[in-house]
Amino acid sequence: xxxxxxxxxxxxxxxxxxxxxxxxxxxxxxxxxxxxxxxxxxxxxxxxxxxxxxxxxxxxxxxxxxxxxxxxxxxxxxxxxxxxxxxxxxxxxxxxxxxxxxxxxxxxxxxxxxxxxxxxxxxxxxxxxxxxxxxxxxxxxxxxxxxxxxxxxxxxxxxxxxxxxxxxxxxxxxxxxxxxxxxxxxxxxxxxxxxxxxxxxxxxxxxxxxxxxxxxxxxx
Length: 220
Fold this sequence. Notes:
seven-stranded mixed β-sheet; 10 helices; two-stranded antiparallel ribbon; disordered N terminus
């Protein structure tokens, strides 16, 4: 008599990147109509990006109804990134494919040296500069506000980042708030504030009422 393997055990045997894809719903069809109406969110990742922050951003904004696209900044179009704690995540597209597209939000996870890899990606910086020039939303958490945004003139005084001296020193008059909204720029401190950061990003895209409903559903 054949026995069926429990679903949780089956998923536990999958490659980490494949399991991440399942958790984001990539293996299930989504109607063209619903995607066409969704806000478009780009989440760039690299080797050594922070996985808690990445997952909080992608999962939470998907719950809001956004079309979330993860882009790898690795050379040669490589999609699989080994994150800061060894988890492997598979991006949807290489970063070059994200250029020339319109994004309602670009959200950067932190992690080191993952943030440095993001900083050194010319296509990503071009996308962020376009967001700034057009007044569209972008955000960063943990090391990324200091390493990426501050180094490229993409954030002003009074933002926040991970509270390490080497990072705070790159910022202009940083503050200690968990999440800071400055016009079309949102910054946050680190893994422990990642869910709050993601909900705030959703609020900027979909409004306070929707954000409250999603937060309540997530017990946040």
